[in-house]
Amino acid sequence: MTELEKHIPDLHVLISTPFHPAYMTAERIKKAKNLKLLLTAGIGSDHIDLHAAAAAGLTVAEVTGSNVVSVAEDELMRILILMRNFVPGHQQVINGEWNVAGIAYRAYDLEGKTIGTMGAGRIGRLLLQRLKPFGCNLLYHDRLQMEPELEKEIGAKHMENLNEMLTKCDVVVINTPLTEKTRGMFNKEMIAKMKRGVLIVNNARAAIMERQAVVEAMESGHIGGYSGDVWDPQPAHKDHPWRYMPNQAMTPHISGTTIDAQIRYAAGTKDMLDKYFKGVDFPVENYIVKDGELASQYK
Ligand SMILES: NC(=O)c1ccc[n+]([C@@H]2O[C@H](COP(=O)([O-])OP(=O)(O)OC[C@H]3O[C@@H](n4cnc5c(N)ncnc54)[C@H](O)[C@@H]3O)[C@@H](O)[C@H]2O)c1
What we know:
Elements: H1 3-7, E1 13-16, H2 26-31, E2 37-40, H3 50-55, E3 59-62, H4 68-83, H5 86-95, H6 100-104, E4 114-118, H7 122-131, E5 137-141, H8 148-154, E6 156-158, H9 162-168, E7 171-174, H10 188-193, E8 198-202, H11 211-220, E9 223-228, H12 259-278, E10 287-290, E11 293-294
Parallel strand pairs: 1-2, 2-3, 4-5, 4-7, 5-6, 7-8, 8-9
Antiparallel strand pairs: 3-10, 10-11
């Protein structure tokens, strides 16, 4: 029995981080007879069985917006790292090698490339804003279209049809939550629709990709590079195949955990706890489950 399971029946409020998928399962929720509030100290509450939480009348809320700048900046870094073939260059330095041609044959400029984000919520929009000065062709697919003024300011085009967007992109970035609709969405068929050599950045959730389909496409060269910080499961076991794919620039789950982000989500968690104990509602965008209802994008 884990420490959490030992204390589950006594809990009124559980604060958790999004680092452990399948953390608050339906089974654990059933045992949590006194639980009222599940608070995610960060963003992304798919480690909680949201339907079970709704059925049990629990509130699930997160510190919305707390680390979106951190993740968007990190995504920009990953796009550049893949585009410039940075990791093997750095590896040469560590290995005592010097082979410019060995790197340059697959290094490109970002300028002029087509970049598409699936999901243009808080993180997706910040990424698009940061990409604007690079002179790329920016596309986004989201169930919601931005206001025309914002779209114009950001300089990105809404693509209603995801498949159509994918056929155009040199780089695809994933910025949607993990939901029943997005789980396993990037399977063999979907990946086959993308341009050969496409670069993929995914800091959203690993389970949006079909693990083996990514490995096979990386090995065949259909995906030219993959970078992200999210894994399924987490922590990734030593023989997780994404550790051994060619042309990957993976890290552990770090993009949203800069010191600045930690300060923001710690303060946000404290503020939400203060509100909760005073009986004050959270800002509406912080709720993932409220009064037995899931937030619209999770339905
Ligand atoms: N790696 C990290 O450290 C880290 C940190 C923060 C967030 N995240 C992940 O990033 C995700 C996005 O964060 P955010 O703050 O931008 O969230 P957000 O809610 O602001 O944006 C999500 C966007 O996705 C869109 N969307 C949802 N489902 C869709 C679908 N099926 N098809 C098309 N569009 C869809 C929504 O309309 C919304 O615009 C989080 O849910 C979380 O999983 C990861």
